[in-house]
Amino acid sequence: MTLHAQHPPTSPMAPFDLVIFGGTGDLAMRKLLPALLHRHVDGQIGPDSRIYGIARDERTDEAYRERVRDAVAPLAAADPRIAACLDEFLGLLHYRRLDLGSEAGWPEFAAELGDTPGRVRVFYLAVGPSLFANVADRLDGVGLAGGGTRVVVEKPIGKDGASAQVINEALGRVFHESQVYRIDHYLGKETVQNLTALRFGNALFEPLWKAEHIDHVQITVAETVGVEGRAAYYDKSGALRDMVQNHLLQLLCLVAMEPPASLAADAIRDEKLKVLRALRPIDGGNAGQLTVRGQYRAGAVGGQAVPGYLDELGAASNTETFVAIKAEVQNWRWAGVPFYLRTGKRLAQRMSEIVVTFRRVPHSIFGDPNDGHSSPLAPNKLVIRLQPDEGVKLWLMNKVPGPGGMRMREVAMDLSFAETFGGRQPDAYERLLMDVVRGNPMLFMRRDEVDAAWQWIDPIRAAWEAAHDAPKAYTAGGWGPSAAVALIERDGRTWHEDGY
Ligand code: NAP
């Protein structure tokens, strides 16, 4: 379907200061600075805004700008608009040396930033969480934590409920909750927001959006990459904490939440919180039936031989690189509807999607599929694809054209974004960064959401630890351990094949 709809024009931001603590790191170079560049090219960031990169090395503004120029060179090479604006963008960048673990240098940095009344100041903590408390205290100590300040924090917010509390307490001692923006970049993805638009902007779906009409929901976040150079870091985390606690649960919340009264940030976050609190607890009593954890062995991904997780780590480990969970939201809307979640590394394909499978028609008038002439009626499915190829497809049964009786086939109604709206799909960080500057926390996690998510996750971890068994092995390049297939097939269902 091609509508040739246009992206609405973006409105310019009032001048602001954005400080990236960890301004030379992977996140800054690969995500934040390219996102800011795109927003600048689209006219949203004017010449009076300032962007500071902070790290411990000594380097000049000029050296920092050249480093950023190298990092974004592929973007500039691919788009003449970017190439034309690049020098102007680099002119907004500054670099300051500051050890975030120490007390030195903060007064000078505060003096340089100055205090222009009404000017928004954003501090992006693109550093490990062990530095958060000191950064918050130092900002407070030099008078940079006041009303116009917003702080952005990335995952991981803790490794369990208790450590998340420590981080949130440290931030909460200095900042009001409304100043804290906890990023889950999945929420900034266009399709994720489109899920809310589809559900609440159309009369079609919402009456069907309940146990009476929905058979089950699948949420898959599959990666082809392994842990590469980050094995030591990843080994302390694992798929449950790294992906399920934040991304998958947030997606589940958006599918399952009740209609909020408005788009106000707290209206939506209140509804998401209720979903998290309604999740059926999983603990030592039922983790064996409702969860599967796996760890990849050597195999081949995309035709390339890849080593196993333990070879990459160089040590023994029970950390899971794959997890599948049968979750349930215990409320009137969803009673009895399973939400199958799965995520893993070194899987067959990089793909994130939500599949809502409706119930079958109660009676087929098209004959018996076993008689050799009729086809079975597949249930309708709404497939929300987050990556790659963001888009939405609605699978419906149709008659195969031509003579030869009523032969039925599943056909997808395609709402592909690229085709419908044309142009480049902005990265999630572009929207999220501008939302912080604008002061719109709708797509960020509130503290009680983080706490509630950990409250559901912690007993699963505890059950796994108490069971003392190793994760199930799976070959790199497949779809995880066979136990994950059994988890859903036991219920007479199958994981959605890539028919997207
Ligand atoms: P990284 O590549 O290791 O970069 C860390 C940055 O922090 C560097 O600029 C480093 O510079 C700086 N830094 C470290 N200690 C410092 C200190 N004491 N004082 C001042 N600067 C310091 O890490 P990253 O991948 O960018 O990740 C940063 C944080 O974001 C981590 O908590 C990570 O879990 C999280 N995150 C990252 C991604 C991603 O895509 N990379 C995604 C989600 C979340 P110097 O060492 O030169 O000081």
Molecular structure report:
The chain folds into 2 domains: 16-184, NAD(P)-binding Rossmann-like Domain (Rossmann fold, 3-Layer(aba) Sandwich), CATH 3.40.50.720; 187-431 and 446-489, 2-Layer Sandwich (Dihydrodipicolinate Reductase, domain 2). Helices cover 36% and strands 21% of the residues. The protein is globular, with a radius of gyration of 24 Å. The chain is built from 16 helices and 18 strands. The strands form 3 sheets. The chain has a 9-stranded mixed sheet, sandwiched between helices. The site of NADP nicotinamide-adenine-dinucleotide phosphate has 23 residues, from helix 1 and strand 2. One of its GO terms (molecular function) is glucose-6-phosphate dehydrogenase activity. NADP(+) binds at residues 56, 99-100, 155. Keywords: Carbohydrate metabolism, Glucose metabolism, NADP, Oxidoreductase.
